[in-house]
Write a structure and sequence with these properties.
This protein has 127 residues and is α+β, with helices and mostly antiparallel strands. It has a single domain, classed as 2-Layer Sandwich (STM4215-like), CATH 3.30.2000. The protein is 21% helix and 41% strand. It has 2 helices and 6 strands; from the N terminus they run αβββαβββ. A 6-stranded mixed sheet has the order 1-2-3-6-5-4, with helices on one face. The protein starts with a helix and ends with a strand.
Length: 127
């Protein structure tokens, strides 16, 4: 059995060395107002996770005029999406397979003034 934390750590390893903003595994500090990535799994009612879904949320400050930073979102999604596109990651804590489930797009960040985020939903399976 794998914990959701092991799944997120494997995902974080995929992002290392790829010139991405800081990745907060399962929650970023409250009030953070800079570029960052937040990853989480979606709760499984069975109490453990062997396969399921999660989110990669890319948070960015808005541009002047309250506009989303579309160019920067594109730069970052161009890096992240191939990392999650039918990829198997072997770690000390297990082997995990990731694939893109849905590209949700850009949203207002309700917890951070002047910020927006881009949501990518992924599917995972422990092997």
């Amino acid at each position: 059995m794998q914990s959701s934390y092991n799944i997120l750590l494997a995902l974080s390893e995929l992002f290392q060395g790829k010139n991405l903003p800081v990745d907060y595994v399962d929650g970023a500090p409250k009030g953070l107002q800079s570029e960052f990535i937040d990853t989480n799994t979606i709760n499984n009612p069975n109490g453990y996770l062997q396969n399921g879904f999660g989110n990669v949320n890319i948070h960015l400050p808005k541009l002047t005029g309250d506009l989303h930073n579309g160019n920067r979102f594109k730069e970052l999604t161009d890096i992240i999406i191939p990392l999650l596109d039918d990829v198997t990651q072997v770690t000390d804590n297990g082997t995990f397979h990731f694939q893109i489930y849905d590209d949700k797009g850009t949203f207002e960040d309700p917890d951070r003034d002047g910020m927006s985020y881009y949501n990518i939903r992924f599917e995972f399976q422990t092997l």
